[in-house]
Specification:
It is a single chain. With about 290 residues, the chain is an alpha/beta fold. It has a single domain, classed as Rossmann fold (3-Layer(aba) Sandwich), CATH 3.40.50. It has helices spanning about 15-35, 60-70, 120-125, 130-150, 165-175, 185-190, 195-210, 225-245, 265-275, and strands at about 50-55, 80, 110, 155-160, 215-220. A five-stranded parallel β-sheet has the order 2-3-1-4-5, with helices on both faces. Helix 1 (about 15-35) runs parallel beside helix 8 (about 225-245) and helix 2 crosses helix 8. The N and C termini lie far apart (about 40 Å).
């Protein structure tokens, strides 16, 4: 029995519960982000924050990332997405292409897939030799250790869904015109290799879960539960990371008296903000480092 078998995929939240918890968590996350960026508190730049997302196809990584970054000004966070390496990237060590997306002090970056492709898709699909992907575990751990020992707060999320839920989401995507672009022939082929991927994931969790950068397995059959779990876990890890590095997290600020937000208004504002979250890279304005 592996770690994936221990994930309780029956966990759910109602729409009302999700909205209430996300509102509270989003306010707290924004407060932490501004503090780390030097715009709240004593003005010091805090440690860099890097959030890594991995997971099954259609596991809700994009939706979780949107909820994570929606409270923030788009100048204050960088979102980078990684697919298969290009011809030029293959000419370098597999970790080379990720360096430019890593945040510096006062910055925050969110990675939609990452260096774990070496021990997942590259292993299963044969894009890396057995010697290469076997060596990759230690290379990844040492890479992450060097980042964290230099001050980075590194969070790693695995979005886990059942085979049945993945199939339901694939079928929905296949019938929704605005979502068909998310589904490819390769996605369908990968379903046939689920057993091989499960073994690769279990090996990844066993060999790259280390004290400086733990894996957080997210129960994602319920998108509502998964989104809340990601944001709340991020807050917990960032607060502890600040304490470990000599930064006291600010006390939570109470919402202004009488301020309420209707469900409809909340959704409208969230959608409007989400549209403005591009994937542009570089430093933010207004004194806060994006990455």
């Amino acid at each position: 029995m592996g770690r994936l078998d221990e994930v309780d995929l029956s966990l759910k939240l109602s729409r009302k519960e999700e909205a209430a918890r996300l509102e509270t968590a989003s306010n707290r996350l924004l407060e932490l982000r501004l503090t780390l960026g030097g715009l709240l508190g004593d003005g010091r730049l805090g440690p860099p924050v890097c959030v890594v997302f991995e997971g099954w196809d259609a596991s809700g990584k994009g939706g979780a990332i949107r909820r994570l970054v929606t409270p923030m000004d788009p100048r204050h966070v960088r979102v980078a997405s990684f697919a298969a390496p290009t011809y030029d990237e293959k000419r370098h060590h597999f970790l080379w292409r990720f360096w430019s997306s890593l945040p510096g002090w006062g910055g925050m970056a969110v990675l939609d897939r990452s260096w774990y492709g070496r021990v997942l898709v590259e292993r299963v699909e044969g894009f890396a030799t057995p010697e290469q992907w076997s060596r990759g575990y230690d290379e990844i751990v040492e890479f992450e250790r060097s980042l964290v020992l230099e001050g980075m707060i590194l969070l790693k999320f695995w979005m886990h869904i059942s085979d049945e839920e993945q199939l339901r989401r694939f079928k929905r995507r296949d019938t929704e015109p605005l979502k068909t672009w998310k589904l490819t022939a390769e996605d369908w082929r990968n379903r046939e290799k689920r057993t091989a991927y499960e073994q690769a994931i279990e090996d990844m969790l066993e060999r790259t879960d280390h004290p400086l950068a733990r894996w957080h397995l997210i129960e994602a059959d319920s998108k509502r539960y998964a989104r809340v779990a990601v944001v709340e876990q991020a807050i917990t890890e960032i607060e502890q990371g600040m304490r470990d590095r000599g930064f006291d997290p600010p006390s939570p600020r109470p919402r202004p008296a009488g301020k309420t937000t209707s469900k409809t208004t909340s959704k409208a504002k969230a959608k409007a903000k989400a549209k403005g979250k591009g994937k542009a890279e570089g430093e933010g304005e207004g004194g806060v480092q994006r990455g």
